[in-house]
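Subject: for your reference before the review

Hello V.,

The reviewers asked for a structural picture of the protein, and I figured it would be easier to keep everything in one thread rather than splitting it across files. Below is the amino acid sequence we used in the manuscript, unchanged from the supplementary table.
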Amino acid sequence: MAGNVPINVSSTTITNQKVKGTNDPKWVQLLLITIALLFLGLFLFLPLITVFIQAFDKGLEVYIAAITNPDAFSAIKLTIFVAIIAVPLNAIFGIMSAWAITKFQFRGKNFLITLIDLPFAVSPIIAGLIFVLLFGSQGLFGEWLFERDIKIIFAVPGIVLATIFVTFPFIARELIPLMQAQGTAEEEASITLGANGWKTFWYVTLPNIKWALLYGMILCNARAIGEFGAVSVVSGHIRGLTNTMPLHIEILYGEYQFAAAFAVASLMSIMAIFTLILKSILEWKARKQLDTGLN
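And here is what came back from the structure prediction:
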């Protein structure tokens, strides 16, 4: 019967079609590569090189003095402290939200996905203002907090809250597409074999999402370290107490301490480069694991 005639398409034919479809003229390839390199050089490498040149413009002693200054050291510690709190909390939230969205069917799922994407749509400054309206002295909970001597705005808790808000989509958004593609077959098989929910998550789900989870945590950490808008609104710019690295750089630059500002900026650049290296390593490991699984 015609409906049962097998259709055999060789891999060689598919490969040839792909190559043919992407076999643009040599001049087009060179033009596109040149444009990409010029764009990266102008907007990425040139500013990065400029930061390090300006940081060491007045010598190594000035550079070391700038990054070991008590205010700078306090800003560095606060930035790392906020990231250490924000990233794990967002990892927990990302796993829970991704699990709920991909493993269960319930009303309001699309609304939950929209809420997760909200920080991408809302300006960080508006996010900071929201926390001021909630927890500031004239805010919704301001009087209650004041009576109990609890400080959130212009204090470290406000900075942590603002950072968590602007960074919480990153991990969830890395996990949701992956877990949707994986489906629920392995979890269902594990439960059928007698494993409880925790064992299923620990021995089945987590190994399958570990690279996406780490990748999302790296992106979350990079945003937490570099966040400026929301943190600027809720911090109060108190030297030695509520200034993160981006805020400290802004103050130094505004005071015409350019060498010190670029010195601290170079530290942030080093953190960003280290983040890119980790990101590349994780991508390589994920591709290697995928290729191993396919073979």
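For the response letter, the relevant points are probably these. The mean pLDDT is 86. The CA atoms of residues 130 and 167 lie 16 Å apart.

Happy to draft the paragraph if you're swamped.

O.
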